[in-house]
Amino acid sequence: MPQTHPSPTTAPPAPSTELSLEERLAFINTAMSMRLDEAAVAYQVNTAHIDTEPVDLRDVVTGPLDTGPAPLPDPYPTPVAALLQRAHHRLLTNGWCTGALVDEDGARCLYGAIRIEARGDSGLEASAAAVLLDAIRRTFGDTDSVPSFNDAHRTSHVPIRMLRQAASLADARGL
Predict the structure, then answer these.
(1) Within 10 Å of residue 5's Cβ, how many Cβ atoms?
(2) Using CA atoms, how far apart are residues 170 and 110, in angstroms rounded to an integer?
(3) Which pLDDT value is given to residue 175?
(4) Fewest CB within a 10 Å sphere: which of 27, 51, 118, 123?
């Protein structure tokens, strides 16, 4: 009698369904993680023979050196230009502020820097402020005053640049 075996029943293959975006990204993430792990192992194997000494970070990472204030460049030969140049240098080294002639840290506004560098000479101070206001108006149009221009800025970049331009303007005028 021949033996009959039940024929194995195989399920028909499931219809292919397209993967969602999240599923595809999960597969790609897994594949990339595996490739990165393989690359890390290959790097370790390829560089294992290189003898290195540990690096002391204190030798590599250093703080800024306190070199003192920057030297004043050669002064302009004219008094108003030299005053504006000194005021420019003062703002660069001691800081710029807004809303006051001088703040609690010693930083000064444009007019405060001119006043301190004028050293009590009110005529020189007035001439320097006038040249600065003229330089500001040449670049920015109608401006009420040097203090209002100073207080209209949040950072020192433009006010300090205008002080440098005013020094150059005063020198060109022979002031």
Answers:
(1) 6
(2) 16
(3) 85
(4) 51
Residues in the chain: 175
Between helix 122-140 and helix 110-118 the angle, nearest 10°, is: 150
Mean pLDDT along residues 34-50: 89
**Residue 114 near residue 140 (C-beta atoms within 8 A):** no
- Output the average pLDDT for the chain: 85
The SS3 of residue 133 is helix
**Contact yes or no for 150/98 (Cβ under 8 A):** yes
CA distance 110 to 147: 7
Q: Is the Cβ–Cβ distance between 83 and 117 less than 8 Å?
A: yes
How many Cα neighbours within 13 Å face the side chain of 117?
26
d(CA 24, CA 63): 48
